[in-house]
Design brief:
Layout lengths: L12 H18 L1 H11 L5 H12 L5 H8 L3 H13 L3 E6 L2 E9 L1 H21 L5 H23 L15
Antiparallel strand pairs: 1-2
């Protein structure tokens, strides 16, 4: 029997606090009530999955449904059902893939682009209202730290398991 792994060092209290804050933010952002409020502000009823699809399509010109499923980390059948509804509502269109005529690409229609813009605008205005008492310097610092956090999360997620992370840079001083 192999020996047990050495004990992990304790997790710093600040890392615990950050993880708790991110968990709360994720919960608050994903609440059904928050989504219903957003949909009432934009004036059309879309479920959360449909909004996620529209947001992903707005970042790319067009995607195959399978790639969209991968990016959303869901089953392809889930995306297919959502796309069917979004197509019936006029928010997306299916077009032949020029590289493989048997495959289809999904793109936003003009109505889909307008919907994404309205959703994004309502979300930004809500965030602006929530952060109204923050100073410009605080907002800049938060934006900078969030960008760094996302970059570090992406790097960590792409690091193969069992690979030691790179050591932190030496402290300036």
């Amino acid at each position: 029997m192999p020996p047990p792994p050495p004990p992990s060092p304790p997790v710093p209290a600040d890392v615990i606090a950050i993880e708790r804050a991110l968990t709360r933010i994720t919960y608050l952002a994903g609440r059904a009530r928050q989504h219903e409020r957003l949909m009432s502000l934009v004036g059309f009823p879309l479920d959360r999955a449909a909004v996620a699809i529209l947001r992903h399509l707005s970042a790319d010109e067009q995607l195959r449904p399978g790639m969209l499923a991968v990016r959303l980390s869901v089953e392809a059948s889930h995306v297919t059902r959502q796309l069917t509804q979004l197509e019936k509502s006029g928010f997306v269109a299916r077009i032949p893939d020029p590289e493989d005529r048997r495959a289809q690409l999904i793109r936003l229609t003009e109505a889909g682009r307008i919907a994404v813009d309205r959703i994004r605008d309502a979300g930004l205005r809500g965030m602006q209202a929530a952060l109204a008492d923050w100073t410009p310097d605080d907002l800049h610092q938060l934006a900078t730290l969030f960008d760094r956090l996302v970059d570090d999360f992406v790097t960590h997620a792409e690091t193969p398991l069992g690979t030691a992370p790179a050591p932190p840079p030496p402290a300036a001083g």
